[in-house]
Amino acid sequence: MIVTQYKTPGPEAFRGFVEGVQNLEEYLRTNASARLEDAEEQFNESLAADPDFAPSQYYKAIALTHARRAEEAIQILKGINQDDFKTEVLYNLAFAYTKTYTYENVELALEAITDSETLAIEQHRVDLRLLASALKAFVESVFGAFEFKHPDNFVLRQKKYLPAAMTLAESVLSDPELEKLASETRLAVRVEANGAAGIASMYMGLYSASFEESTDDYWKRAQLYYEAALRLHPRNVRVLDDVATLRLMQAARATEENHLDEAKSFAKSARETELQALSYHRHDRFRFYLLTYIYMLLGKWDDAGKAADHILKEPGFHFTEEQLKELKGLIHSRNIRPILDRYSPKQA
Q: Residue 220: which H helix or E strand, with range?
């Protein structure tokens, strides 16, 4: 989301800012992690010349969120003077909060993105409104999808937020104002909304005991949304991660049902998809975490161990040495039961 107003700084700060934005935009087009690293370096150069230049702070925070360093991004965004671009700051603050994948922060993300959406409406900014609504669908899908080890009623949260995410994403995709947006903004909205609808559908299939339709119906729908997103942005690593997760769920269900050839086919597809995501952007521990599970279902225990070794070497969601030790124990004992318990559908 582009900052619309800012005060021009000195030439060194401005040069670093411009070069950083160019590399960040290239990353968003290609998901090539080297461009993200270049962008952060250039924003750092800009801020070394002018530490108070808010647009460089803002874009550095965006780069950090995509580099899976969301906590750092949150601190920067919370410290920015928001007077000139509060809507955009709240939007990116919501994204950063969500990417920490903790209950408390996803709650804060819902508040921030709702405020961003409201401000965009007040400002008569259709582009910001649709961007905010698409991201809100993503935040809602995350809040309904993950248990977060929180004492609230997770089933009620599923029933509230997953259908809400689906409805909101579909309303964005069908909004007649969408066609009036600039092409890059329109693409960003469509990718985000399709991705959010895919996540909501995928987890409604996983938790189909809580919903009216079958797991297969929801998963077929999720596949269609993911395909639509990847037609628009074939290198989008977030969507590729979600496709790999869907294939892992399908492999887990097939394993539970003793359809072993089918399970192997799904697990191989998951591996190919996740390796594709890693070829674009390796610096995300979730990718190695997911790949570890995929190799375990394939019975490739040495590869699973090697993937697990990379988890804590990369930034991303909270994962402890103790959790890694437990995962390595599962690999050592060749125990896939926790994977099946987590990713097989919960049906009535």
A: helix 215-232
